[in-house]
Design goal:
Layout (H helix, E strand, L loop, with lengths): L1 E6 L2 E6 L2 E3 L9 E3 L10 H27 L11 H4 L1
Parallel strand pairs: 3-4
Antiparallel strand pairs: 1-2
Length: about 80
Amino acid sequence: QHHSLTFHTEHVRVPFMLLGDSAFAFTDYCIRLCGGDPERHNQSQRKFNERHSRVRRVVERAFGIFSAKFRVLRKAMELEPGIAS
């Protein structure tokens, strides 16, 4: 699914993407780090991995703050799906 995003005066359509690590499959909606030996990566791959990791750290910190604030999120919900809705 594509949504609009504006950069300065330029209008660009950007898809929503999930950022995954090596445990996730690379799909149309999930991107992960460039694999293989980091010593063999070119400059673009190194820059991508650096930025990908930086964004994931921000997201992980946000989830850490969120779960500290709402401790109920630290354990599994003990409700049947029919009751939870």
